[in-house]
């Protein structure tokens, strides 16, 4: 009996569908030179297709970039992807927020296979702050007031007849991963699915996200936004059968996005969900 129990546990660990949740542990060593070249290629892409725009509400301005579907067809509805940047991209130049993970949507193959609107806002100040949680002994994230203008911007897109409001997705890295969690927790009925890469968790409103499709991705060696935060959030979502957790054993905060830049797996996962 003990042997069967151990076998079932190990099967869960390698992510077979017998488990309520999906956990993937990836120990493969990544070729840092290869992925650095991919990142360099992404950073060299022409970003003119990401149109520069500014949203204003009550005297507050939010710069953002918008990528429209290629060969957009009249009368067709497309998903809306909210791509959220890390803290090193704070500012008002309306350029820095296009980090490599966001630039992957510019690739011709991605635009052909996954036509969508991609909205990339840029925050001047942090939309989230971190503090130690006394009980859980992990860093947790708390949303800030400047998230409200982004919610208003997203709400305005819901009025666009070309936007499929049943397929609005969130994806973010680092601070952006925490921001994605804040948005999902605040408006779970707005968003079909969320991917948070190396984020600090928001555990303040777990009731709102207990049935939402959520994919957490984190490097075990991350000591900037510690790995244990995502681990603890995933444990808190143990009843959520749509929750997924990918652990990269050998990666840290600065290289966690590298294996995500040369794949369409993130888009494939997002696009299978709808409200």
From TrEMBL:
Residue ranges crossing the lipid bilayer per the database entry: none
Domain of life of the organism encoding this protein: Bacteria
Entry keywords, A to Z: Signal
The keyword Ribonucleoprotein belongs to this UniProt entry's keyword annotation: no
Sequence ranges assigned to domain Dienelactone hydrolase in this UniProt record: 138-253
Coiled coil location: none
Name this protein carries in UniProt: Prolyl oligopeptidase family serine peptidase
Organism of origin: Pedobacter helvus
Taxonomic path: Bacteria, Pseudomonadati, Bacteroidota, Sphingobacteriia, Sphingobacteriales
């Amino acid at each position: 009996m003990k042997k069967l129990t151990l076998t079932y546990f190990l099967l869960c660990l390698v992510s077979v569908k017998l488990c309520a949740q999906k956990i993937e542990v990836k120990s493969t060593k990544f070729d840092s030179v290869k992925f650095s070249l991919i990142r360099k290629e992404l950073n060299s892409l022409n970003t003119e297709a990401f149109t520069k725009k500014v949203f204003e509400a009550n005297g507050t301005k939010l710069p953002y970039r918008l990528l429209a579907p290629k060969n957009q067809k009249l009368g067709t509805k497309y998903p809306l992807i909210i791509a959220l940047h890390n803290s090193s991209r704070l500012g008002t130049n309306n350029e820095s927020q296009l980090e490599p993970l966001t630039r992957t949507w510019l690739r011709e193959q991605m635009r052909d296979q996954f036509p969508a609107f991609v909205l990339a806002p840029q925050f001047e100040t942090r939309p989230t702050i971190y503090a130690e949680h006394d009980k859980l002994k992990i860093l947790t994230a708390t949303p800030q007031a400047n998230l409200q203008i982004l919610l208003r911007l997203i709400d305005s897109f819901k009025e666009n007849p070309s936007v499929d409001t049943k397929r609005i997705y969130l994806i973010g890295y680092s601070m952006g991963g925490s921001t994605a969690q804040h948005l999902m927790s605040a408006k779970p009925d707005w968003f079909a699915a969320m991917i948070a890469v190396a984020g600090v968790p928001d555990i303040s409103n777990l009731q709102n996200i207990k049935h939402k499709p959520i994919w957490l991705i984190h490097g075990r060696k991350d000591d900037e936004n510690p790995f244990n935060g995502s681990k603890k959030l995933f444990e808190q979502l143990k009843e959520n059968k749509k929750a997924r957790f990918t652990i990269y054993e050998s990666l840290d905060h600065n290289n966690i996005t590298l294996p995500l830049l040369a794949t369409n797996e993130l888009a494939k996962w997002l696009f299978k969900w709808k409200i």
